Amino acid sequence: MTLRTDLRAVRKLISNLFATRRNRAELARVRAQHPPPPPGEIEIAVYFADSKVNLYQIRQWYRPLQELARHHRVAIISRTPSAVLSLWNESGLPTVYARSVADLERFIAAHPLKIVLYVNQNAKNFQMFRYGGLWHTFINHGESDKMYMTTNQFKAYDYALVAGQAALDRLSHALWNFDLDRRVIPIGRPQADHFDGGPDLPADGRVVVLYSPTWEGDRAAAAYGSIATHGERLVEALLSTGRHRVIYRPHPLSGVIDPETARANRAIMAAIERANATDARAGHIVDTGGELGWQLAIADVAITDISAMVYDRLATGKPIVITRPVAPEADVDERGYLGAAEWMTADDSRDVVAILDRVLTDEDARLRLQHWSAHHFGDTSPGAATERFHTAIEHLIAQWHVHAAIHVGDVNDLEADPDDIELDEEPGE
Known about the structure:
By secondary structure, the chain is an alpha/beta fold. It has two domains: about 10-190 and about 385-405, 3-Deoxy-D-manno-octulosonic-acid transferase, N-terminal domain (Rossmann fold), CATH 3.40.50.11720; about 205-375, Glycogen Phosphorylase B (Rossmann fold), CATH 3.40.50.2000. About 40% of the residues lie in helices and about 10% in strands. It contains 15 helices and 13 strands. The protein has helices spanning about 1-30, 55-60, 60-70, 80-90, 100-110, 125-130, 165-175, 180-185, 225-240, 260-280, 295-300, 310-315, 350-360, 365-375, 385-405, and strands spanning about 45-50, 75-80, 95, 115-120, 135-140, 160, 185, 205-210, 245-250, 285, 300-305, 320-325, 345. Strands 3-2-1-4-5-6-7 form a seven-stranded parallel beta sheet, with helices on both faces. The relative contact order is 0.14.
């Protein structure tokens, strides 16, 4: 077993090496087509140190950031070749490749930066934290009740923008001696203002079901993924009715650790392909695209695991069923919405059709959903979250000017730390 594990690790290392070399060659070829923004322009930067495999964390912010860029100059800072290549092609925002700490310093020195936004807790964020005179602001990549949402790492940021009252309650219980009133600003879910687009589905009366599981997790306490435990049974049951249309959207990391999850993921995709071949009007979808939002808006009912997808769906106010993790160690915090949610165990997945029929017609379920949607996101009317996001940014800029006036004449030492190393790897490729 150890030998097999070692061989897999060696193969992955070699694969990553070749991927990195290909990405660097492609970057060298196209870099001239993507010049950095002229000096003196950028006020707000989004710092993304991850590789392409975690781009889903920033993709959901593209549209809100593009809207913000109508009022303030925004740019993305990318630290790896694979990510910057994708960001150049899809973000719609100026993107700077900063391979080294020296590259970071040159960018910071060239622009009137006031705010740096972070969408994840990557350890390499600390290479950016060292620069003062900026508001380092955590905006996350989703709202959820995962352990991730209460990490003590929140304290590393000057500010955090969160969804609503539920997030404030969550942090108040978890973080000791943390000034929530000053450092945490609720804004709702501005991404939900852009949940549109997607394919034109036939108006044939089929119930559209979004099944969007998370990945298997890297430890038992985070084993929320349902693909191997629930997924095959529930998808097969829905495909067999002739009155449901399935949108299957697996997490990008599904199966990277667990071979059984990888097998079940392939089996679900194959079953959907067979169903479409049998009935050309079925219109089932395997969705592995980068754009997230239309799936949540278009589905009549959603099935998802404990993840940010629960709360993205909750922001729409439309019916949702959550899979109950099989692993007894999986941490499920039922003090909030999860204590009132509609659950589906692995055994229940055989009865998914009946469960969905009930959830779609139950008035009590609808009222509970409305209550918890407001608790997590506040006002969810169109445009309300975007307005709160912009108001928060204006507040931070105003505070920046207050403190900049206090520190006029201070010298910022941007000399590189000799212990800092260049980012030269592509994790997860």
